[in-house]
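Try this one yourself first.
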């Protein structure tokens, strides 16, 4: 396991190990999507990660997809997140904020009746969203006009500025899992014509504009990007996911990012393919892998040069001291899925560390 505990330079950030915490939506924000002291405790407990990547956070108002997810578009939210960054830094950690637009995964019941927006008027099917009125089907989104996209880019830029004011060490642009930027990127959700549709270059245009905007705030060396070329979550599909991954990986070399964070598979096993090998072959920067890695597989992948770090999701959710447990070969706490999104500390901040077990 020694390779997982070697330091890694992420642009401007020095990570002491290669065991990262993946962004995990936990729905513990308070009224007004304001981060809470409980969230600060949760992240500080996990500060031994090489890098903490905080959960999907609304870059701009009116785009809620999870009911109780946090935002970074109001002064109260900035102040709420400052509790987390202060706590993480006091515990010796480093933390990026994942900034996000829910796109067609948003719902009118979560957004004062507003219809969700998307690259094309194609709804998510086969799933439902949690709302104040219980689980509800997703609705038909409205196709965005080209003239509306500069305001979205500006919203991400402002979110990056607010994340800096809140004390984060950088931001991760959420370009994965069937939310707005991913919807533009993949041809199963983007059927539009014009400068933001059709060719892969056009479909990636909005993503690149957002990366440029956030980099103008932070410097690209404090900006990461998460992608999921294979994941069919939120009714996503692409006609050539491996080709998309290869093209995107090569083009991203132009941005000098802190890292590229790639999900290697599909939650549902619908789309198959080896995207990690092609991304590694085409991307010259720091590559962070995610999705179902054991600690042994992660150590092997880093040792072999297949990836530079691995982000753990549910492993970190249930084990606040995951690096120490991996290093000691200690057993892991099992996560409780019934409490992933429930309110309060149960199943959130009450998982024991080795010191308290």
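Now uncover the answer:
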């Amino acid at each position: 396991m020694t390779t997982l505990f070697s330091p890694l330079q992420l642009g401007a950030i020095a990570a002491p190990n290669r065991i990262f915490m993946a962004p995990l939506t936990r729905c513990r924000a308070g009224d007004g999507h304001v981060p809470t002291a409980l969230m600060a405790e949760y992240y500080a407990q996990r500060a031994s990660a090489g890098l903490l990547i905080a959960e999907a956070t609304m870059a701009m108002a009116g785009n809620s997809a999870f009911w109780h997810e946090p935002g970074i578009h109001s002064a109260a939210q900035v102040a709420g997140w400052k509790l987390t960054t202060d706590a993480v830094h006091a515990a010796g950690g480093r933390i990026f904020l994942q900034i996000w637009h829910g796109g067609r995964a948003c719902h009118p019941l979560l957004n004062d009746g507003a219809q969700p927006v998307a690259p094309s008027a194609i709804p998510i099917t086969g799933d439902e969203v949690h709302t104040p009125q219980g689980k509800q089907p997703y609705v038909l989104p409205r196709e965005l006009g080209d003239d509306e996209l500069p305001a979205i880019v500006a919203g991400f830029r402002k979110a990056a500025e607010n994340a800096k004011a809140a004390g984060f060490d950088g931001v991760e642009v959420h370009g994965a899992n069937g939310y707005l930027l991913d919807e533009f990127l993949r041809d199963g959700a983007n059927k539009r014509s014009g400068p933001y549709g059709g060719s892969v270059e056009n479909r990636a245009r909005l993503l690149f504009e957002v990366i440029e905007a956030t980099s103008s705030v932070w410097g690209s060396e404090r900006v990461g990007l998460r992608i999921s070329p294979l994941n069919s979550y939120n009714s996503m599909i692409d006609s050539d996911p491996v080709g998309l991954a290869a093209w995107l990986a090569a083009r991203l070399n132009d941005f000098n990012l802190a890292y590229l964070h790639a999900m290697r598979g599909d939650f549902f096993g619908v789309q198959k393919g080896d995207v990690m090998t092609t991304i590694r072959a085409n991307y010259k920067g720091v590559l962070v892998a995610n999705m179902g890695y054991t600690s042994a597989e992660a150590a092997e992948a880093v040792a072999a040069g297949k990836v530079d770090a691995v982000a753990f999701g549910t492993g970190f959710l249930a084990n606040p001291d995951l690096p120490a447990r991996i290093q000691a070969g200690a057993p892991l706490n099992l996560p409780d899925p019934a409490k992933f999104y429930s309110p309060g500390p149960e199943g959130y901040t009450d998982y024991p560390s080795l010191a308290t077990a």
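Discussion: The longest strand covers residues 52-58. The chain is about 30% helix and 15% strand.
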